[in-house]
Amino acid sequence: MKRFTLLQFSLWLLALCAGIIANVMVFHSYSVEKQEHMQVSLQRYLDSHPQITVTDAPAMAEQLFATMNLKNLWLRDAEGEVLANKTHRQNSALLSQVAQSQFNSVRSQYAVSSNGELRIEFIADLDDVAKTFEVGLLYFVLVISLLALLPIASLKTAFVGYRRHVADMISAIIDQFVSNGVVPDTSSRAFSDDSQKQRLASQISPALNRLSTYLGSQLDNIASSAVEIKKEAYKDVVTELGNRNMFVEYYERHIEHVQGDCFGCIALVRGTELQHINQRSGYQQGDEYIRSIAEMLSAVVGSYRGSSVFRLNSSDFAVVLPNIPLKEAERFANNVQSKLNQYQKIHDLTSVAYTGIVSYEQNKPLGELLANVDVAMNIAQSKQNNAWHIQRQEDMSASSNQGSQNWRKMINDLLDKQSVTLVIQAIMPLGKSNNAYSEIQARFRDEEEHILPTSSFMAMADQLGKSVELDQMIIEHAFRAMKSKNLNAQYFGLNVSAASAHDDKFVIWLERRLMKEGELAARLIFEISELGLQQNIGASKRFITMLHRAGARITVEKFGVGLTSFKFFRELKPDFIKMDASYTRGLEDDKNNQYFMRLMVDLAHRIGVKVFAEGVESQEEKHIIEQLCLDGAQGYYIEKPREL
């Protein structure tokens, strides 16, 4: 459009110049002819009046100026002296001025009498003619301007309409592509009623097809990237197995909402030694322990078509065995137990893992299935090392009671025999701080002197309502050990469950024991988890107030896992907080954890609370912790747990 407008303007300008030149040339020719005619007429006049003398000059000038169209008139004698003259005072027309300047069109003309005594000099008056030419030139300009503007206006209108047609056509192409996934060809109904659309479509369709191909490839790339991202998000970092999210999605897609018949077994394998290995040998060995279990499970399920292994949490694995009856699941469990026994023997462990198995069928809710397999797990843990148990639907109620009864009997036996082993692990003071102590931890053994998994034991004790009695037994043993070994110059930490801390009878009992053992109370720091404190804030505050009243102190352990605010800690007024081990692992490479830990240290110090780190396993982690101004560090690098 711009190029056409520029072309039209150029043609208009060229035509205008040509018109002006032509008009001036015609006016020039007319002027020359007119002046020649007037000269001939005056010469004839003089020739026809030979009797005129110089004395008649004024009268003749008046007569000639009145009868002829003259602008200037001079009558001269033979010597050139002016005898008479006449002149019009009006200005010349513009065209006359242009012609005069370019061609000298209007100039003086002469006529001489036959005797040479009288000479007439004149300039013709052509202003009226020039104005007529000017009007004609104006009309010419208007006409060529109109001829130049009309195509531009009509083209713009046509362009708008054509653009609308193109937009409609492209819209039709895109609509059909969106609906059918293909670009319509030029013979489709979208273009059959318009030959111009067909031609345009034939030109545009190849480009749109290329665009369609490109978009298709981009969508494929995006889908492929999304799958890869999803795999990474659903992958466990330590074992590279699918995590809990992938297990839930797998169950919903392939079991719960699958079309047609569906059956099989799900096994829950729990590595019960993880916490013990973490505390004894460090988290790196704990990761190696978890990887070993994953490798053993993957090796066993490799012979079962369509089977899958997932890591649900830190120590639990789920194994899906599709189209496998319970009888075949027993063979699977025996194979797993055999590998676990071999690993236990090689690494000199008291146990490795336990297995619970249940069957599933279509439309079985996952929550119910996990509850059933957890019952099977509890029963397996009450048997021999690395045992397994299959939970059948018809035996669900009886099996659940059986598992609970086995654990209840085991815990009651330990309480009756007062059987507990105490180990300690020191917290090293950092910087200028001297506020550190050694944490006392409990270990339990069964009738065959095998160490029981501490986390499972404490969880079942809490579930069976035995936490208070268990904590009382541990505290009594700690008091006796401190007095018998004459550990008067040391400070010790004791773990207390949330159930005990929130139990009024236990609080009264503990206060009496601390009042009775006044010297010991001043050297005791009781540890309770952050999540445990949150369960009952009022009871937690009463428990901490009692400890302070008795001269003891309190540490909030596993800090950073819950959502407790520092306003809450200001009200409870703990003495120490112990950062959860998840913030310490790989601290030297994790800037986010470093920032969070430094922020916690600054806030805690402002309210007078000391901050410890647990799970320290390397010199690099210890160095970063020192730079972050923590008050103490605990972990395998600092000291391994040892018997009290």
From TrEMBL:
GO MF terms on file? cyclic-guanylate-specific phosphodiesterase activity
The portions of this protein that span the membrane are 136-155
The cross-references to InterPro entries, in alphabetical order and at most eight, read: Cyclic-di-GMP_PDE-like, EAL_dom, EAL_sf, GGDEF_dom, Nucleotide_cyclase, Rev_trsase/Diguanyl_cyclase
Keywords (A to Z) from UniProt: Membrane, Transmembrane, Transmembrane helix
Domain EAL stretches:
404-644
Where in the numbering of this chain does the GGDEF domain appear? 262-393
Record-linked Gene3D superfamilies = 3.30.70.270, EAL domain
Q: Looking at the Swiss-Prot or TrEMBL record, what is one Pfam family this protein matches?
A: EAL
Matching CDD domains: EAL
Q: Which domain of life is it from?
A: Bacteria
Q: Fetch the NCBIfam families from UniProt.
A: GGDEF (TIGR00254)
Query: Any idea what this protein is called?
Result: Diguanylate phosphodiesterase
Name the source organism. Pseudoalteromonas ruthenica
